[in-house]
Every structure is written in structure tokens, then in C-alpha cells.
């Protein structure tokens, strides 16, 4: 029996099962089985396989990587060529783009790599239409732009989300607040710091036993679902921010545009007429959460033209040094920082000081 047939069987059983307290345990087990089968689909066991898709993965350059995901013929290539000035083949038929086309834009001093991925089709997560490679490249992005056609229904949004979810990509979500630690002995130690609406000790044990884990510490620090627990146990999930880009707004009325603006995480644009690109770039910048640090040589004015760009959450002085050169941290005596992260300007700080956007730094060597 093929993996796809097994998945279909489990999905049918889940659809037949009523959701209530009595069946929660059984549903949790089915969800865990489903997650395991999905993982086998993504990474087939053994064998050399057919090798990676030719020309798919692109070397990472710049400070951040943004991928365009969408169905064929929604205007991804037009968007890339108008944003980055890179020519990605554009034509009026579907599947014009067959491999990844990279482009780079400079925005607020940061180099952002844009990837135009081939269109995905329904069933991409099961390996249809090169979907597996497309979504694998999408996993490496810092931000995903889901490009949708305004004229086509919002069902497409759901379909693409479903494809990406099936591949372990979680859009606009935070990792669940669950502590999970495997042990050698001692059974399953289950603690919940707040009331759980879905999981209890029994369900947690059965989900873990499906993964052949019989000794572990599990701490639930918020009200979580069985899916969240499975995500943590699988451990291969990536949490990526996402913007829905609604293209082709030149073909709808103003009233419809007002409705569209109310959808969360959404930017309406027209790639062909280059409408509303500044709004899109601004939103991309907000979601990427990059931090710009300006450098100041001793006795000179700060260099405001080329900042050092650091990702959010890794903005200490140490990270800044490592970004420039790994030997720099060994020679560092202290740093002088001007900006919003310090109490007075300039302030003498050590390597653990966390900087904020548009700070100015001067390094003093030993």
C-alpha cells in the first residue's frame, strides 16, 4: 500500500470521527500517524533518489531571502522583474517559470534576495509538479510572499497554505510554548502550567508512544493542541512570516479594493502597472525585522550609506563582530554605541550588549 493511500485512509477516518472528549485521544493518535507519513513523503527512505532538481536551490546572498510562492500565472515573474529589474521569462501561458530565478533589491541599505519560484499546483506537498523542490526552497526563506490573483477566489489562499503546512512550514505563527526533553529512563513526566482544553496526560502519552518515545519531560506552558505537540516532537517545523500579495488590482473596482485592504497580512498591488510597490516594500521590511547598525571609524563621521544588517534576535555586539569577521571578537576590548539601545551617548558596552535599529557603533581593539 503506497504512502499516499495510507494518508488518504487516515484522512478519511479523521473525517468520519466525531470531535468530542471521548474521541480526542483517538484523533490525537491519527494526527501523529499522519504527521509521520507526511514526513516519509518529504524525505523518502534510503536509495539515492533522483538527485535534487536541476537549478533549483540558489546560493544565499544578501541579508534576507524572500520567496514568491503562488499558482501558475498570478504574476510572480512580472513582480520580480519590476521590483528587481531581473528578467524572468513572462508569457501569457501557465508554467512559464520552470526553475528558481533570483533577483536582488536594495532597500534601506539592506540587500534582499528575491526568489521567483515556479508555480505550485494542488498536491505539491505529495511531490506533484516539482512541488517538493519548490516548497523545499521556500523553507529556506526568511519571508514568504504568497502571490494571489485578485480575480480568482480566496480558495487559492487556503490551498497554498495547506500545501505549505503539509511540508512543515508554519505561516505567521510563533513556535508553541512546549518544553520537550527526551530522557533515558523515568517514564513520561507530564506537567501543564495552565488548563488544557484538548490535551491530557493520556493523549500526550499515546502521541509520544506513536513516535516510540517512552521517557521524556513534557511541559505545556500555554493551551496547546495535539498538532502543536506533534510539531514539537517532529522538530523539523519552520516558522516563517508571510505576506499575501494580491496582484492585478487594476482589474477591480475601488469598493472591492476597500474590502481587500481589511484582510490581515495582505497587500494589494498591480505588478504590471507598478502600483503600491512602496507599500509592499515597507511591509516586507516590517515582517523581516532586520536591524541596521552603522559603523563609525575613530575620529570620523558615521558611515550612513552601507549599514551592517543583522537579523532580529541576533543583534548583540558579538553577533555584529562575527558578521564582519570571526577573528574580530578576539581582538575586541569594548565598543562605543550611540543610539536608542543605550542610556547615554556614547556608552561603553561589552560584547553582550543588544543593539537596536539604526544604532552607531565604534569598536575599540585591545
From TrEMBL:
Any Pfam family matching the protein: TGS
Domain TGS: 289-365
PROSITE patterns: G_OBG (PS51710), GTP1_OBG (PS00905), TGS (PS51880)
Keyword terms, alphabetized: GTP-binding, Nucleotide-binding
Gene3D superfamilies in UniProt: 3.10.20.30, 6.10.140.1070
Superkingdom classification of source: Eukaryota
CDD domains recorded: DRG (cd01896), TGS_DRG1 (cd17230)
NCBIfam families: small_GTP
Entries under PANTHER family matching the protein: DEVELOPMENTALLY-REGULATED GTP-BINDING PROTEIN 2
Protein name: GTP-binding protein
Organism, scientific name: Ataeniobius toweri
Amino acid at each position: 500500500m503506497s504512502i499516499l493511500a495510507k494518508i488518504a485512509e487516515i484522512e478519511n477516518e479523521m473525517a468520519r470521527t466525531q470531535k468530542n472528549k471521548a474521541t480526542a485521544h483517538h484523533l490525537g493518535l491519527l494526527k501523529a500517524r499522519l504527521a509521520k507519513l507526511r514526513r516519509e513523503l518529504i524525505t523518502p527512505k534510503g536509495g539515492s533518489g533522483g538527485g535534487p532538481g536541476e537549478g533549483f536551490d540558489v546560493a544565499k546572498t544578501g541579508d534576507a531571502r524572500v520567496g514568491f510562492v503562488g499558482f501558475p500565472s498570478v504574476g510572480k515573474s512580472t513582480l520580480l522583474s519590476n521590483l528587481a529589474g531581473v528578467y524572468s521569462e513572462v508569457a501569457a501561458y501557465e508554467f512559464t517559470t520552470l526553475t528558481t530565478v533570483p533577483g536582488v533589491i536594495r532597500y534601506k541599505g539592506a540587500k534582499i534576495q528575491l526568489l521567483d519560484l515556479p508555480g505550485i499546483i494542488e498536491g505539491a506537498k505529495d511531490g506533484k509538479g516539482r512541488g517538493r523542490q519548490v516548497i523545499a526552497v521556500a523553507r529556506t526563506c526568511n519571508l514568504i510572499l504568497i502571490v494571489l490573483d485578485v480575480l480568482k477566489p480566496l480558495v487559492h489562499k487556503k490551498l497554498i497554505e495547506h500545501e505549505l503546512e503539509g511540508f512543515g512550514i508554519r505561516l505567521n505563527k510563533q513556535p508553541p510554548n512546549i518544553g520537550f526533553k527526551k530522557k533515558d529512563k523515568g517514564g513520561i513526566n507530564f506537567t501543564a502550567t495552565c488548563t488544557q482544553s484538548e490535551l491530557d496526560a493520556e493523549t500526550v502519552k499515546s502521541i509520544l508512544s506513536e513516535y516510540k518515545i517512552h521517557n521524556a519531560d513534557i511541559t505545556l506552558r500555554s493551551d496547546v493542541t495535539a498538532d502543536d505537540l506533534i510539531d514539537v516532537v517532529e522538530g523539523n517545523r519552520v516558522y516563517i512570516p508571510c505576506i499575501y500579495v494580491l496582484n492585478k488590482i487594476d482589474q477591480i473596482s475601488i469598493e472591492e479594493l476597500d474590502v481587500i485592504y481589511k484582510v490581515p497580512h495582505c497587500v494589494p498591488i498591480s505588478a504590471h502597472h507598478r502600483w503600491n510597490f512602496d507599500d509592499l516594500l515597507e511591509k516586507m521590511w516590517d515582517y523581516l525585522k532586520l536591524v541596521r547598525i552603522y559603523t563609525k571609524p575613530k575620529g570620523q563621521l558615521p558611515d550612513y550609506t552601507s549599514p551592517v544588517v543583522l537579523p532580529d534576535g541576533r543583534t548583540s555586539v558579538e553577533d555584529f563582530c562575527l558578521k564582519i569577521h570571526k577573528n574580530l571578537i578576539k581582538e575586541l576590548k569594548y565598543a562605543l554605541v550611540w543610539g536608542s539601545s543605550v542610556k547615554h551617548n556614547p556608552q561603553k558596552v561589552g560584547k553582550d550588549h543588544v543593539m537596536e535599529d539604526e544604532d552607531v557603533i565604534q569598536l575599540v581593539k585591545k
